[in-house]
Amino acid sequence: MLRRILPLAAIAALGLFDPEAANAEQVALTSTVSVKNELKYLLYTPDGYATSTETYPLVIWLHGGDQGGSDIDKVKSSGIPKLIEDGKKFPFLVFSPQNPSEELLYPIEKVDAALEEVASTYRVDRSRIYVIGFSRGGFGAWALAEQFPDKFAAIVPIAGGGNRHYLNRTNEKAAFWVFHGSNDGVIPLSDSVVLYERLKALDRNARLTVLEGVDHSGVEWATLNDAELWDWLLKQRMRRPRPIDFSVAAI
Predict the structure, then answer these.
(1) 3-state class of 210 per DSSP?
(2) CA separation for the pair 212, 191 (Å, rounded)
(3) Which residues pair with 179 in a beta bridge?
(4) Cα torsion angle, 61, 148, 102, 97, sign
(5) Is residue 192 a contact partner of residue 161, using CB atoms and an 8 Å limit?
(6) Whole-angstrom distance, CA of residue 64 vs CA of residue 138
(7) Looking at residue 218, what DSSP letter applies?
(8) Which of 6, 15, 130, 214 has minimal Cβ neighbours within 10 Å of its Cβ?
(9) Burial class for 166, CB neighbours closer than 10 Å (0-12, 13-18, 19+)
(10) pLDDT averaged over 10-residue windows placed end to end, the chain, 251 residues
């Protein structure tokens, strides 16, 4: 059967062809929708904070997957908040945001916004902000180091993982201490090893501790009860580059 093709003039007469309507377009627009940040968090202030005028280091604690959701008390069941609940005292502020999702990774842009709120409200030494994350929170620690590289003096991912291709964005002056258990059946040791090796290739200040015979749940407590970690952590500072003295004539 022969297919009949109507001439353009006939199509136009039938109203099926509109030269103006045929011009597709792409325009640039800006969204004005604001995203609510109703992130819940715990905040610990050390002894003497209320009567002092000094600034204090701040540790961000990112919990594992079991503490996500909307019940903030769940965050107290593990990690640094659990140690605080059991009576342990720390000489720094502790900011423990709750991941609002029980399944997804931390919304780190919201974590960063809440961090800024805390740092602006409390006396925080911005050269001594540290992030420690376990499991899903370990993924968050790596992501924060990559996306907000100028904020953290030290990053401590515990049994985490991440995207090694963005590690070149991490701050050259930041220090990393990576922990993982050799018997981790949830997140394989190789996830930490590949990130550590990439950091070393980038000439970053990085160290890796593999806890032999320790599984996924055991590495959290083994790390947090390591006195050497806390001594090391509090020595780390985000050193800003010295300003150039233009008063000295160049030779």
Answers:
(1) strand
(2) 16
(3) 158, 209
(4) positive
(5) yes
(6) 8
(7) H
(8) 15
(9) middle
(10) 53 55 88 87 97 97 95 97 98 97 93 96 98 97 97 98 96 97 98 98 98 97 97 90 48 39
